[in-house]
Amino acid sequence: MADSVVFEALVNRENVMSSAENFVLHLLLQATARAKGDGANGVRLPLNLGVVIDRSGSMYDERRLEFVVEAVKFLVDNLEPDDRVAIVAFADQAHIVAAGDQVRNKAAVKRAIDDIDMLEIGGGTQMALGMKAAIEEVKKNLAASRLNRVLVLTDGQTYEEMACLELARANKAQMSFSAMGVGAEFNEKLLMQVAQDTGGKYHYIGDSAQIPQIFEDELQGLRAVTARNGRFDLTLSQGVQIREAFRASPEIYSLGEPLLDAERKISYAVGDLEGGVPASILLSLVLPPRKPGVVRLAQAAFHYEMPGFGDREVPADVTVNYTLDRAQASKANGRVMNLVDQVAIAKLQAKAEEEFKQGNVDRATKLLTNAIASTQKVGNVKATQALSGFMEQIKKTQTLESKAAKTTLLQAQAVVRKTQMLDPEALKNLKDLE
Questions:
Q1: pTM for the whole thing?
Q2: What is the torsional sign of CA 333, 334, 335, 341?
Q3: Which residues is 268 bridged to in the sheet?
Q4: Which of 9, 204, 331, 335 fits a disulfide with 414 by CB distance 3.0 to 4.6 angstroms?
Q5: Domains contained in the chain, CATH given
Q6: What is the pLDDT of residue 261?
């Protein structure tokens, strides 16, 4: 049987100068699961979901709760007989609106969802209580043959933020967590971290009317999973170091400080793979000078579970050719550089955000100017517009305290984090961003 995942290990330069000291090489590890009907096994995995709904007082603003009710009813209507979905509402307390097995009676569940605003659970925001209740419900139907996920939706700051993160991390081996933030008052850093640490998705929802579409996208994504529990393993040769590591697709974010074990090995989990959607990480390697010739820099492998067929592994060697020919060493891989540039733009945006929060408006503006120029260079129109809007807003308000400023920040984050698969031919001559 052909592999249901295509794994590639690509460097931005196949030839490097022999005399170069501390040469930085970018390594892209990318895995793409085949879509169902395209050589994939086509096994449908039943769902085991916990839906956690913020029902605090602010959820009545802008018809948020009304759109959530519509979205969850759509989800219930589109369940298969072997799917299980538990629905939990939270405010100061958590309440199980429907247990996982109750979805067999869709009409009764939808009636309970319609009455969600009548629950006596207070008006505050205790998201950890809602998450804990949903986790317990998901565990009742937990199985390796199911897609186990918790979906969390909130529009505000929660008490005990660390408890939310700890709950997600403690249960990530059994289930993933997708987090949805509505409006401009929630803690985006917390929701991003919950999703990143567990292999789920983070969604920024600026317009409440988008809530049903986000739920539909989540459902479609879960139905499209054809490979599970993906993991990149990398063993570096002596003398090769990792300077930094980023998730490069389908979203861009830092993977933290690279820590090699005693055997110079490091692993990066990427969770479940939807068919046709690349999952990749981008590593900046620091190379020592060597004599001319082909050298293996690392051994890479992608591990995953193929539903119905067990664990699989696809290996790949990472090699470069050390040379004295400057013309050879100047040639770059446009496809890798595409992602190098997008990661660099995301880094500039994050630095600008931190500078602005510290009151360094001039410094933040300069960083955003550089980021905007880079988005224009690579032809990423959406990112150009989003970053330009954010810069204009901070020039006007000089603060992130206003709703307009926070909204433009969240919009810029969402656009810059989402990987744009641009035309590599248009990017093949691009150089690294400073």
A1: 0.92
A2: positive
A3: 232
A4: 204
A5: 5-33+229-331 (2.60.40.3670), 47-223 (3.40.50.410), 335-426 (1.20.120)
A6: 94
